[in-house]
Write a structure and sequence with these properties.
With 290 residues, this protein is of the alpha/beta class. It is 54% helix and 13% strand. The chain is built from 11 helices and 9 strands. A 7-stranded parallel sheet has the order 3-2-1-4-5-6-9, sandwiched between helices.
Length: 290
């Protein structure tokens, strides 16, 4: 297995959560990091924690010019870019019937268009280095559940984009993979649990491994391992691979029947909680996304 020592890895959404912890894990393995995101204070703090020889830049992945400027600046300062992890993402709360339409379209913009802009900006550098792009999708890409329509649609799109892009650039020496974490103990997951008790109750009723929670440290290690082996797929935890191969099961009539009593009870409660909140994004993401 190759290692990442001396390699330059650019991560979007690197200010906190999976992005920041993956940066720590890769730095521990000898990589140099380029941290990109919307929270400059947090990015600067993570970069300072990593020590000398790293880079950070504020950029919006939904703005092609913004992310291109950050990618090019990272390549100029660090000398090259070997790996890109398209990690930036948001998760709205609520159902299609009740959520703010702007939250739905913003989720698509960040989680799909953001991957496109990141990949397009990074490809010249990755082609030069015969590098690797890891697109962070989700378990949700193949396990749709009520209350997560926007997130599921966007992460399914991100997975499909990664698969199509892999066929476009493999002859250029660039490998593209997709990562499929389940519930990771991050700010984003905790924000949803805090905002919507009904959603948290429904999540706990899902069959294993759809309900399992993984620490951000274990997720970061899995991502770093995936980078080192230029993985086609990264599953966190590994049992998520089972759901990938059984991806038609969660949307099947059997599971629908089993979940029907829970859905009938908790979806209306979820919609009431979203109405009471008066927003369809977490409080932090509402401020960041405008």
């Amino acid at each position: 297995m190759p290692n990442v020592s001396g390699k330059v890895v650019l991560i979007t959404g690197a200010a906190r959560g999976i992005g920041a912890q993956t940066a720590r894990e890769l730095a521990r393995r000898g990589a140099r990091l380029a941290l990109v995101g919307l929270e400059p204070d947090e990015l600067a703090a993570v970069a300072a924690e990593l020590g000398d020889g790293h880079f950070w830049a504020e950029a919006d992945v939904t703005d092609g010019d913004s992310i291109k400027a950050a990618v090019d600046a990272a390549a100029e300062q660090l000398g090259r870019i070997d790996v890109v992890i398209a990690n930036a993402g948001i998760a709205p709360i609520g159902t299609v019937r009740k959520s703010d339409p702007r939250a739905f379209t913003k989720t698509i913009d960040v989680n799909i268009n953001g991957v496109f802009h990141t990949a397009r900006a990074a490809l010249p550098h990755l082609i030069e280095r015969r590098g690797y792009l890891l697109v962070v999708s989700s378990l949700s890409a193949f396990t749709p559940i009520g209350g997560m329509a926007a997130y599921t649609a966007s992460k399914s799109g991100a997975e499909a984009l990664a698969s199509a892009l892999r066929t476009e650039v493999s002859h250029l020496g660039v490998m593209v993979g997709s990562a499929h974490p389940s519930w990771i103990d991050t700010d984003m997951v905790r924000d949803v649990a805090q905002d919507l008790s009904a959603f948290e109750q429904m999540r706990k009723r899902l069959p294993w491994p759809m309900r399992s929670t993984t620490s951000v440290q274990d997720c970061a290690k899995a991502f770093a391992d995936g980078v080192e082996r230029r993985a086609r797929r990264v599953y966190v935890p590994r049992a998520v691979a089972l759901m990938h191969w059984l991806r038609n099961l969660p949307a099947s009539g059997v599971v629908e029947i089993l979940m029907r009593p829970t859905v009938r009870r908790l979806i209306p409660k979820m919609e009431q909680e979203v109405d009471a909140l008066g927003r369809s994004l977490s409080e932090r993401n509402q401020k960041l996304q405008g």
